[in-house]
Structures are given as structure tokens and as C-alpha cells.
Specification:
Elements (H helix, E strand, L loop, with lengths): L17 H44 L8 E4 L7 E5 L9 H28 L2 E4 L7 E3 L3 H11 L6 E4 L2 H16 L7 H10 L3 H18 L2 H16 L15 H17 L5 E3 H5 L1
Antiparallel strand pairs: 1-2, 3-5, 4-6
Helix pairs in contact: 1-2, 1-4, 2-3, 2-4, 2-5, 2-8, 4-8, 5-6, 6-7
Length: about 280
């Protein structure tokens, strides 16, 4: 009697080890609460979670296999986390799919960060800076400057805004948004750049890598991020993976959203995210 034949069954899409994602989320909740308190933890995770779920649900919409978000707890970091990411487990075939998946994350995170920023700044305080101040000074993106001016006006010389933990989480969210929107390689900005420019996006990648190298002169905090981008380009190459309809232009609505991505980047970007005053004084 012949044995029953074994029929290979392909793995269903969107199957995840939910326990692993939940564990990483709980650990990240712990590390972010440890470094910044509950206000900071809840806000930061809401922004990061919205960003990654924006990518995830866009993948679900197009039936592109992707994981749930992986959160990255780092207890020794001033942020308590290195952020979060999803892993897309199959190629994205069409340009419009690539664009929509790439831009969905930054928009979702940005929409959560905006109210968090304004509420956080409203709960902050203007304080006098001690003459012997030692610590960190945060660079102020344009959106942060606007919120600060609306609630507190022009800050007098010798004073500074002592930011509430929710405002600090929003600042961190804006920094993460700006970094992800860098039009390099396979970052979100790289996906958007390729969808708009096609193969010419490779030139943008090299140009922005040069910009990142210049930024390390203004702030040492760019050294790590620039190094990570160089490693990414070395491992995956500067050319974005092709889609089959590479020559088909994007529609007007998506071009408008690409312009909005540039606006988001401009509002969230700061050339010197963190200044270490204790190191400068030495």
C-alpha cells in the first residue's frame, strides 16, 4: 500500500510570532518608562507604533507580506529605544504600491506627533539656564519652534524651555521622521524618491549621503546615523530594487503627497539634534 503523499502547503501571509512582538513592545515600554516616565513612554510608543502600523496596514491593503512591528528596547540610550521596524517579506511589484507603503508610515507618525508636540510644549516651562549648565541641548526643528513661539513667545536671553516628557517624545518622533525621510537607499525617503524619480534616485542617494557627511561637522550626533546609512548602502547597494512598471509616472495625487513628504522633512529636521555642553566645555 502506497504511503499518503505529502502535499507542500505554502506559508500563509501575515503569520507572525505574536509573542515576540508583544515581548519586545513590553520591554520597550519598560526601557522608555525608565528613561523618561510614563508620559514619555506612552507618547513615544504611540508615534513609533503609528509609523510602523502605517507601513503594515498599507502592506495589508496591497496583500504584501509583512511582519508586525518589532520594537527595539535600549535601556542605556537617552531615548530608551532605537525605534521600531517591520520586515517586508516579499518584493513590492508596482511603483504605486511602493510609494504608498513608503509614505504611509511617516504620515501616520507625523499625525500623532503634531498634537503630542503642541500639548507637550504647552505643559513645558521656561526656566533660567544656570551659568554652569552641564547637559544636553536639543536642536529645535521648525515645527518645534512654531509650537514654542505660539505658547511661550520669544524666549528671553539666558532662559530656555524645559520640555515636558510628552514634548520630548514628540521631539524624538520628529527626529525619527526626519531620519526615515532621508531619500537614501531603502529608507522611507528612498522608496519615495525612487517612486518619483526612478533610476535617477541613485544620484539623490549619493547627494544626500554627502549632505549627511557634511552634517557630521555640525553635530557629532550625525556620525552614528551616517555610519549606519553607509553600512546599509554597502550591504544592499545604492540602487533601489526595481519595480516592473518603473517607467510609469506617478499620478498627480501621489506627486502632491511626495511634496508633502518634503514639507514633513523640512518641519522635522534640525542640523544639530543634540549638543553635549559638558563635552564642549572641556
Amino acid at each position: 500500500m502506497d504511503p499518503t503523499p505529502v502535499v507542500w502547503q505554502p506559508r500563509s501571509k501575515f503569520q507572525d510570532r505574536v509573542w515576540l512582538h508583544a515581548l519586545l513592545l513590553l520591554l520597550t515600554m519598560a526601557t522608555t518608562t525608565l528613561v523618561g516616565g510614563l508620559w514619555y513612554s506612552a507618547t513615544a510608543l504611540a508615534i513609533l507604533g503609528a509609523h510602523e502600523l502605517g507601513h503594515y496596514f498599507a502592506c495589508r491593503y496591497y496583500d504584501i507580506d509583512a511582519t508586525l512591528p518589532f520594537f527595539l528596547p535600549v535601556p542605556i540610550s537617552i531615548f530608551g529605544t532605537l525605534g521600531a521596524f517591520i520586515r517586508i517579506r516579499e518584493p513590492i511589484p508596482q511603483k504605486r504600491m511602493l510609494f504608498d507603503i513608503g509614505i504611509a508610515g511617516p504620515i501616520a507618525g507625523f499625525l500623532v506627533a503634531i498634537p503630542a508636540l503642541f500639548i507637550g510644549v504647552a505643559m513645558s516651562q521656561v526656566v533660567k539656564v544656570p551659568d554652569d549648565f552641564v547637559g544636553l541641548e536639543l536642536g529645535e526643528p521648525l515645527l518645534f519652534k512654531l509650537a514654542s513661539w505660539l505658547f511661550w513667545g520669544a524666549t528671553p536671553k539666558g532662559y530656555s524651555l524645559y520640555i515636558h516628557p510628552m514634548g520630548f517624545a514628540a521631539w524624538f518622533g520628529m527626529l525619527a521622521t526626519a531620519l526615515n525621510l532621508f531619500p537614501i537607499g531603502q529608507l522611507d525617503g528612498g522608496h519615495i524618491s525612487y517612486a518619483v524619480l526612478g533610476p535617477r534616485s541613485t544620484y539623490v542617494t549619493f547627494l544626500m549621503l554627502g549632505v549627511a557627511l557634511v552634517l557630521t561637522y555640525f553635530s557629532s550626533t550625525w556620525i552614528v546615523w551616517t555610519g549606519l546609512m553607509m553600512v546599509m548602502l554597502y550591504m544592499f547597494g545604492p540602487r533601489h530594487p526595481r519595480v516592473f512598471d518603473e517607467e510609469v509616472p506617478l499620478d498627480r495625487t501621489r506627486l502632491f503627497l511626495a511634496l508633502f513628504a518634503v514639507v514633513m522633512f523640512a518641519l522635522c529636521f534640525t542640523p544639530a539634534p543634540i549638543t553635549f555642553h559638558d563635552l564642549i566645555k572641556r
